[in-house]
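Late entry, evening session. Most of the bench is empty. Finally got around to the prediction I had been postponing all week. Sequence below, unchanged from the version circulated by S.P.
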Amino acid sequence: MSELLIAKGHGLGNDYLVADVAALPAPLSPARIRFLCDRHRGLGSDGILLADVGEQIRLRIFNPDGTEAEKSGNGLRIFGAWLYRHGRVRLGEWFEVGLIRDTVRLRVEAELEQGALLIRVALGRAVFRGADVAFQPEAGEALDYELALPAGGSARINTVSLSNPHCVVFVDALRRDDFLSRAPQLCTHPAFRAGTNVQFARVAGPRTLQAWIWERGAGETLASGSSASAVCAAAVRRGLVPAGVLEVVMPGGTASVEVTPAYEVILVAPAQLIYRAVLEPGAEAGYLAAG
């Protein structure tokens, strides 16, 4: 894969590579995606954003393991920053981005210090039916549902779909040993036919939540926009916090999430491009040979 021009950005420490499908010298196979995302032998990232900017703006999102994701709140904001820096969209104007399952609306709100941008994303309506996240034990709303874990013990889960699957676990206190033990088991639990993103969260104030994230296909990440939104939607649905504007504190930073009474979700947080680069010829072949 020679002469691949690629950019990198992050949203609250959750980093993605951005490539234009029109400029790809070869298709992005799962092996190529794993190479590019590899933090030791590749460029390193939590995923790849593949831009298709024609008459309609479309985006495909890939996890670092080579699988495709339906949606990413941080990825969408990074993509919005990429579009803005390339002159494709304007400050303060809504624009639409087509994903593999739905279409979302974005707006670049403001230019921040050191090149960051504040970006608003209307992610759509959160729903809580188990069927919408391919949760086999319960097709209806799975709220505070006790699920046995493969290694023993259980978790009280809340299923949320934002066109991608989420499993929210509310805890009284966030503990590393507990999170690192239960979150990976939930992510690949056979009860979720397509796997799921997992969030361990606690209510930290009247309108503040704290969350740790284990993402499907990526593992632990510093932040996740759709995960923060799922946490807020589940907390409102459970009556733990009121509808309205909430804050979610994650290891990578804080995102603002508005949940309406109808469970429409709007995410507001910064995103920033870091660099543009050209991949050296032969780098991919060396990676594949070593693997």
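Two things to note before I forget:
The mean pLDDT is 95.
Residues 186 and 198 are 7 Å apart (CA to CA).
Will write this up properly tomorrow.
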